[in-house]
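Here is a tokenized protein:
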Amino acid sequence: MFRAVDTKDTGAVGAEVRSLYLEIFPGGDPALVSRIFECVTKCFRGDCDEYQAIDTQYHDLEHTMQGTLCLVRLLASRQRASVVPPLDQRHFELGLLAILLHDTGYAKRRDDPTGTGAKYTFTHVDRSARFAADLLRPKGFNAEEIKAVQNMIRCTGVHANLQAIPFQSELERVVGCALATADLLGQMAALDYVDKLPALYEEFAEAAEFSDGRVPASADFRSVEHLLRNTPQFWQNYVRVRIEQDFGGLYHFLENPYPGGRNEYVEKVEANIERIRRQFCPPSSAMNRS
């Protein structure tokens, strides 16, 4: 079992990430993780010059911490397994930046008084990629590094076509797929995942209001109950297929021991799905999320 970490506490998540980073890269910069976390949490809290604080209730800072913790655990386990290509320090650092920045596209600019950042739900991945470039370029990151972070972020799109993403290396693709895996499992394994789904529905509803009715099928819900009843099918028919096939089965590195041990993340997701089935899904329900 993984060590318990409070994902509401960015300091606790940062400490766990730093510990794993230095375990797999003993020569790494001990202060690097703290600097990255400080920079990104400032962005979430509205301390960036051009942007307000991120005010979405589902895609909040804790959501990002959940994905970040899952990603680093997955990458550390993969490194211990000595698979090819081996992870290098710079791709780990770029992957960490990408997961921490992958939802910054929900941030509204200072001069935007309308609605919440949820209105950008259907465009937030591209906005996050632009946000990342605007943040990293003045800090001395080169074009190749910025492109790597953007490519990894784009892996998190619900309908992302991985074949169309111009990865610069196989390792960049691996880290991008690991990031997308962690984004899904980190949130769905959370103890309060089911309780937060009404907030996700509200984000979809606001995005629909601001999109002139152009709503992707994957986000077209009539009510909170409609979303809840479709979530088991979302897990079975979308997430499981995505993480096993499109993302190369990287979630197996979360097994303890690897390979073949228990997968705590999958177990927690399935417990959440079972709770939804018991509470919200009539036995005759055959609804599909997408």
Notes: The chain has a mean pLDDT of 95. The two ends are 33 Å apart (CA to CA).
